[in-house]
Write a structure and sequence with these properties.
Length: about 300
């Protein structure tokens, strides 16, 4: 089924800006023209693609069609480079699912090394970024573990080290009797969001029990570190974000020599592997400097 490029562009632009009026301004057409394009596209696929509201959001099928449009843009940009054609349409856009801690520590460095791309990042908890690629809603993703998503090429990157950290005063208040299953079950911990399983994974590894301590929900990588520094709770922080506070004593390990290493994998939809090869190379270089090597 062939889809009109102008219709696809209207869909992507509405979802990027959140309204028909803003999309019309970006595309230099009238809002009526944008509405007509979306109606024609929805008639073509036989389903609603946009939830009209403030802001406008995509239906599940709308997300898939919008991702198809961006994939086409990446492939056309690659072809234009190979044929040394003028790229009058500007840089291609790539949508990538990235765990928040990866974005906060090293992924922006990789992005900065690649020209000719506009990035549209989906930031999710580390255990769930793979789902975006599995559903076909992004072109690439940083995923946890080594499982390859069907239809994707995978590159093992290394391991991100997490350290259980807390304020020294917090340690004296909650762990005066030692760090054990009893004290860990009572001490408040920090959790990124309700998908975050890092703290519970570390607790299970250390105690052999499935503990559920009281928890603050704090969906910010930098805020996670700051919350630990001021004594709000203990949490698993990437060593790259916590090392300064550990060095100057604002934070200390909840347990010494008890890190949690999380393996990361870069996965790209196979049809786009060649088009995204420069980005893959940048991700590989940057990860080699930021992550720990792992045995394969």
């Amino acid at each position: 089924m062939l889809l009109d490029p102008n219709h696809l562009s209207a869909l992507s632009t509405i979802l990027r800006h959140g309204s028909f009026d803003a999309a019309a301004s970006d595309l230099s057409v009238t809002p009526s023209a944008v509405s007509q394009r979306i109606k024609a596209l929805e008639d073509r696929v036989g389903a609603a693609l946009i939830n009209r509201g403030t802001p406008c959001t995509a239906t599940p099928l709308g997300l898939r069609v919008a991702q198809h449009a961006e994939d086409i843009g990446l492939l056309e940009a690659k072809l234009a480079r190979e044929l040394t054609l003028d790229q009058t349409s500007g840089p291609a856009r790539v949508r990538i699912a990235v765990p928040a801690d990866v974005l906060a520590t090293w992924f922006i460095d990789a992005m900065s090394q690649v020209d000719g791309l506009l990035f549209d990042l989906v930031v999710d908890d580390q255990d769930h970024s793979a789902e975006w690629l599995r559903r076909g809603e992004v072109s690439a993703a940083i995923t946890v573990g080594g499982d390859t998503i069907p239809g994707a090429d995978a590159l093992a990157l290394g391991a991100m080290r997490y350290v259980p950290t807390a304020n020294p005063d917090f340690m004296r208040k909650w762990f005066a009797d030692g760090v054990n299953a009893d004290t860990l079950s009572r001490a408040p911990c920090l959790t990124f969001n309700r998908k975050d399983s890092l703290q519970k994974a570390w607790l299970t590894r250390q105690t052999g029990q499935r503990l559920s301590p009281p928890s603050h929900f704090l969906p910010s990588s930098q805020g996670f570190v700051e919350a630990a520094i001021v004594g709000l709770g203990w949490g698993m922080n990437p060593i790259g974000l916590a090392q300064d506070a550990l060095a100057d004593g604002r934070l200390c390990p909840v347990l010494p020599d008890a890190p949690l290493d999380v393996r990361l994998t870069w996965q790209v939809g196979r049809v786009l592997s060649a088009a995204l090869a420069p980005l893959t190379a940048a991700v590989k270089r940057t990860a080699a400097e930021a992550l720990l090597p792992v045995d394969t």
